[in-house]
Write a structure and sequence with these properties.
6 strands; Rossmann fold; about 25% strand; alpha/beta; 4 helices
């Protein structure tokens, strides 16, 4: 099983900081373009904090992660949006996020989705032990429907520079 320790996060900083600003600015544009009121956001699985670092003026971002990097934690009772950027595939049991989903009007997700021609074996995002779940669009929609959300929008704005990563916004029913 993947160990999310300080070495892992330091490695992520070294490998991906070059594209982090571009991707997170795109993520903010995605949210601001499709969610009318966006004052409070929870970045669940915030990693090293790139998403919060490039927040637009007037948006308060709370952050939570299992890592040792600075974070605010879950501090308020209602979030306009909770973001799971590259997170869901790492969570062992989704019951752990049920209380977080109950606090959210919208949920944003980015996640690797295999294309129909690619099997899991040999796929860039096939990482047993690190990625605990592999979703199709239908299975991801079913998961959020179970927790009371409908799909608002799907986009692939992170590709390029990334491959086989889709982003979704779900709205509370």
């Amino acid at each position: 099983m993947q160990l999310y320790d300080l070495n892992y996060y330091e490695k992520m900083l070294r490998l991906y900081s070059g594209t982090a600003e571009e991707i997170n600015k795109r993520r903010w544009h995605f949210l601001k373009s499709h969610i009318q009121r966006l004052n409070t956001v929870l970045d669940y699985g915030c990693g090293v904090g790139w998403f919060r670092a490039w927040r637009p003026p007037g948006v308060k971002v709370f952050s939570f992660d299992i890592a040792m990097y600075p974070q605010t934690g879950v501090e308020i009772q209602i979030y306009d949006c909770t973001c799971f950027w590259d997170v869901l595939e790492h969570i062992p049991d989704f019951a752990a996020i049920e209380p977080i989903l109950a606090l959210s009007r919208f949920v944003a997700v980015s996640i690797p989705i295999p294309n129909d021609e690619t099997g899991l074996n040999g796929w860039k995002h096939f990482k047993p032990g690190e990625h605990l779940h592999y979703f199709t669009r239908a299975s991801l929609n079913a998961l959020f429907n179970k927790y009371g959300f409908d799909l608002l929008l799907e986009d692939d704005f992170e590709c390029p520079p990334r491959l086989d990563v889709s982003s979704f916004i779900y709205r509370r029913k």
